Amino acid sequence: xKLEEISNMTLPQMLGQTCKRFPERGAIYFYGQxxxxxxxxxxxxxxxxxxxxxxxxxxxRVAIMxxxxxxxxxxxxxxxxxxxxxxxxxxxxxxxxxxxxxSDSGAKALVVFGPLLPKAAGAPSSAKLVKKIIVELxxxxxxxxxxxxxxxxxxxxATAPTPQTDLSPDDVAVLQYTGGTTGRSKGAMLxxxxxxxxxxxxxxxxxxxxxxxxxxxxxxxxxxVYAMTSAMNAGIVGGALLILLPRFDLEEVLQTIQAAKPTxxxxxxxxxxxxxxxxxxxxxxxSSIRLCVSGSAPMPVEAMKEFEAKTEGTIIExxxxxxxxxxxxxxxxxxxxxxxxxxxxxxTEAKIVDLGDxxxxxxxxEVGELIVRGPQVMKGYWNMPQETEETIRDGWLYTGDxxxxxEEGYYYIIDxxxxxxxxSGFNVYPRDVEEVIYQHPAxxxxxxxxxxxxxxxxxxxxxxxxxxxxxxTEEELIGxxxxxxxxxxxxxxxxxxxxxxxxxxxxxxxxxLKDEARQQANA
Length: 523
Hints:
50% of the residues are buried. The chain has an eight-stranded mixed sheet, sandwiched between helices. It has a five-stranded mixed sheet with strand order 12-13-14-15-16, with helices on both faces. Helix 8 crosses helix 9 and helix 11 crosses helix 12. It contains 16 helices and 27 strands. GO terms for molecular function: ATP binding; long-chain fatty acid-CoA ligase activity. It is found in: Membrane. Belongs to the ATP-dependent AMP-binding enzyme family. Keywords: ATP-binding, Fatty acid metabolism, Ligase, Lipid metabolism, Magnesium, Membrane, Nucleotide-binding.
């Protein structure tokens, strides 16, 4: 399809097209149960009808606070069919965060996982909701004292699906809240055009033959923009089977791979590293996976090599951010460069600009800020015009990531602007140090941060998880790094942990470790 055709489509139309092409194909696989595309479309239509009966109108916001499950996909597309806007809420959020998402978005209804109902109900703004729609796993017929309704009863009680609301590709489809590690979490306004185009862009880069149905292992959480696009929406474009798992449990993931034989596995580095560490991973048939897409955090090259040797599949590292729906870069399958995020995807421009003035374009090999432009770039931040103007300038999205481009047009993320360490006046990029640490055979995971030092400004500190059954000392690791890094990059401090703190998607919480290290240094 041409860009014009794709960019004039809404998300419900995208699902409708797949339903017409593959009505009997399996759409969702969840713990051995399966529904096809025709059934999925019908359920979403009834959910939309139920929302309309509640008084939900075009442009109203409806929040989803669910783990990966069929009800998530049904609610997501049902909300959009009703003309409303999906508000993504991380199920691991605390009451304070839930209150921010509900109050900032002005959500009128909430689809919530049953065990999380008390937490959601504790947010003051929940009293303003017209309805809380409760998902129980497994489905259960329950009544709720606060007037909430069970998901199954809500869908069953709706009238027959009515014609879809008249939508424009420029209408906001999703409020995707950013992490908020440096301040108040911001809602990126992603339009139907943004998300449809990015789904097609992603599908074109990952697809197999049209006659062969891909099976997408979807364990990265759908409330995260990466999974929403690269697993769910891109999967739907190609008529794939979405194999849903609510959380990453290594044994459960391996058992699911054995039973459902996925061909695509969008994940994050920590997931691939965990599979690497399992002594019997190969016995679970992980060779069914032909392609893995690694995103959300840099993929260590050594871990990539180890995973590919075990699966005989291919890991492609990409890059994106919430404000770009999220994908902007992808390694071409025919010519990968490990350690690189690849080239800009179709219909997308990128360049490296000077960190000082933000406008001077830099030559290949020079380090600066990565900026991007394309049809997937957000409309702006919800109710935050000043922040929007600072982030999108002359149509270019300023990513905040430090990067470089080589002579062949491949891009490399060096680090986040805010994560750069300045030691004795030298710039130290944590990823440079982490790549070396990962080369040590005893290292399973590693993160590097800067901690205050009265003389050097900052010291390099490494947090390390050692592989089971192996040993490693601080002196050994520092010596290993000293042989492979310039002196100012070598960690002065090493702390060993049994595990590293991670987000729900599996991304290591560097900021948490940095704050802990700074508190220790200042104590």
